[in-house]
Every structure is written in structure tokens, then in C-alpha cells.
Amino acid sequence: MAELPTACLQLHKPAFHSTGVDCFGPMSVKVGRRQEKCWGVTFKCLTTRAVHLELLSNMDADAYLMALRRFIARRAHPAELWSDRGKNFKGGERELREAFASMAPVLQNQLARQQIKFSFNTCSPTLRRSTALYTCVGAQSLPEEVLLTVLLEVEAILNSKPLGYVSADIADIDPVTPNSLLMGRPDGALPQVVYPDTEILIQRRWRHSQVLADHFWSRFIREFLPGLQTRQKWQASPPELLEKAVVLMVDPQLPRALWPIGHVTRVHRSNDGCIRSADVNIKGHAYTRPVARLVMLPALPLGEDDESPTPDLPD
Question: Is residue 305 scored above 60 in pLDDT?
Fold first, then answer.
């Protein structure tokens, strides 16, 4: 098991100094009499666990860059931004890099301190769904203002979660929460408004948003919070992945019954000396994947006419 990354251990840095970004969805919104898809994007501070949510009209680089601008306008620009290798994330980084390179040298010198370091994980992009949020919203089509209100209510719930031990003594000080670091108080939300579930079926959008936020809270404390108690750690290390080893690549995005098999062309070691990712050649295409997504297959036994235990693979 690897040590915590340096981005999670930043001291004396403001919130969202090191930020992770990821997308989830899709969700359905009402626009007039038609329905359109939209997605959500999560900006998470890797040090304080503060969360910032935004809506995306589509999954291209332009929508991501506008969401990034809205995030920076409200939370200030991060020093480093971590994401997967999604096309919208890679395209946004490339467009910002090209725009900076086209500036005059004087502007480049002035803006050098405001540059964001983009870091991409080795895992393949996977569109995630927030289980509690998606269960509450489901397949129903919501007006955009209702969905945006629910997202911000969810953001307030997540940012009010204590970061450490909570004392049972009312005389003790309040626990530190992400909201304490963002706005100077533990919880900035209004008091909870409780409406019956039948309010979903009426046209009062305000009440509808509060019912959905209450549903999220119910599922959040029932399904997510108990999982924080689980602690797993392995003590023994599996055999190291070597070059030319035959591996089976695990890819959740592939259709069922497909088993991509290739051979390792290069391994990548982290600062602690362990192999964390590798380059795999499958039918002439190169992929970089973490070792957790690679299953090393046993080598074939040597026969009388065999020169190598590695089976031949199609180019």
C-alpha cells in the first residue's frame, strides 16, 4: 500500500491549494418542454476535504473550462489540479497551455505565479455516479434551478462533516469542518425544512428541492458514513510486475466477455521504489494502467521446441 500523496499533506496552505476534479452523471433537466442531459463536476480539496460542485451542460473542454473559471472565481485558483485522462480534462489543459504560450513574454512573467500544475492519473477515465445523489434524483427530470439547488445543498452537507473527533461534552469547542476553513463557521446552511414526500408530485420547486436534499441526507448517513469505519491494509506485497510479462487488463468500460491480453513493455516505479503502473502493448496499442488494473498471467511451461515461456501475442 502506497503512502499518502504529498498533495494530501500540504501544511499552511489555503483550501483547494491541491484540488482533485472528477465528473459524475448524467442527469436529466427540463428545458421548456424538452429534456436534456447534464453532468456534474466535483472539485475536492485534497487536504481539507472541502467540496465544490458545478453543473456541466456537456462533456467537452469548453464546458469544463467554464466550470473551472466559476470555481476559481469563488474559491481562488489552485496550485495543482489532479484528474483522470478524460478528453475534456486533457483538452482543457492543452488549450490553457497554448493560450499561455501565445502571450507576450511580459505577460508570461506576470502570470507565471498563477499557473496551475495539471497532473493526470494513470487510470483510464471512468464517469462516476454519486450513489446517494443519483438514488435521490433517479431518472426524474428536474428543472435546472431545482437540480442546482440540490447540488449546493449537498455541497453544504459534505462541507459540514467534522474532520476529526467530536466530543460528547457540550462545553468543548465545535469540531473543525471544511466550512470552518472556508467561511469561518462550522455550518453556513439555513435550518432544515422538512416536507412530506408527496411534495415531489406538486409544482412547488422550492419544496421539491428540499425533499430531494432530505433524501440525500438520509441515504448519506445510512450508506456512506458507516463505510468510513472500514480500514483495510495488506501486509504482504504480491510479486512485482516485470517487463515482457503477459497480463490481462481490467477495463470496466469494455463490453462484457472481452478479455484484453497484452505484454508489459515498461514499468514505472514511484518514489518509494514500488511499481505502481506499467505500459501495456495490446494489439499494437500502448496503454498506461495502474498495477491494480493488471492481472499477471502465469507463463506457459517450456516445451521441447519452446524458446520462451511467453506466448506469442497478435500485433
Answer: no
